[in-house]
Specification:
alpha/beta, Rossmann fold, 7 helices, 7 strands, about 30% strand
């Protein structure tokens, strides 16, 4: 899905997803002292706004102007400051070793492109910092519910760890189950999470 497609998808009034933060992110940063955070592909800002409410200084980078405008409005309503920047993560690299926390939640792009983004994200983590990557697991395509239906944009924990471990020490890497309420009842989505820190 390209930038125009994301703008179109976010065009409807209201948020694509809930305004609540991702619960796996909440778990992954429990106990961390707030500092400087970077939310890559942060879209409508739900995680960034929550982080700001916890005392983090947060920057969101995403390629959808429409999503970023929604994020700005969400931050305004929440009464917090979040910096929103429009960039294509496939061509933009954050400054190295500059953030206490780097987050990527549900960024699904083709193989080589995502490896570049993961490497850039890992390189942006400063000493003592943490990287958290959450996504739809490849197994979700056949065994779970929702998420992208294109195999080439899905990945496994092992693939992600193979890239992130070049720069950081992986402290958590696993599939996780996310409950989804549908009109037909409860379903289960298969996600994954990798948490890594400075070696």
């Amino acid at each position: 899905m390209d930038q125009d497609s994301w703008d179109e998808r976010c065009q409807d009034e209201g948020l694509l997803w809930t305004a609540e933060p991702n619960r796996f992110l909440v778990e992954a940063i429990d106990g961390l002292e707030p500092g400087k955070a970077l939310d890559l592909a942060g879209g409508e800002g739900r995680n960034a706004v929550w982080l700001a409410q916890q005392g983090w200084e947060v920057e969101v980078v995403d390629w959808s102007d429409v999503a970023l405008d929604k994020g700005r409005e969400l931050a305004r309503r929440a009464g917090v400051t979040v910096w929103f920047t429009r960039e294509d993560l496939r061509q933009w690299w954050p400054p190295g070793e500059s953030y206490d926390l780097v987050v990527i939640a549900y960024l699904h792009i083709p193989y080589m492109e995502r490896h570049g983004v993961w490497r850039a994200a890992a390189g942006a983590v400063k000493r003592g910092g943490r990287l958290v990557v959450i996504g739809h697991d490849r197994d979700n395509l056949d065994k779970g519910y929702g998420g992208p239906q294109q195999f080439d944009v899905l990945y496994s924990v092992e693939e992600l760890v193979g890239v992130v471990a070049e720069h950081l020490e992986v402290i958590r890497a696993e599939q996780v189950i996310r409950s989804v309420e549908t009109d037909g009842g409860g379903r289960q989505a298969i996600d994954n999470i990798v948490v890594a820190e400075w070696k």
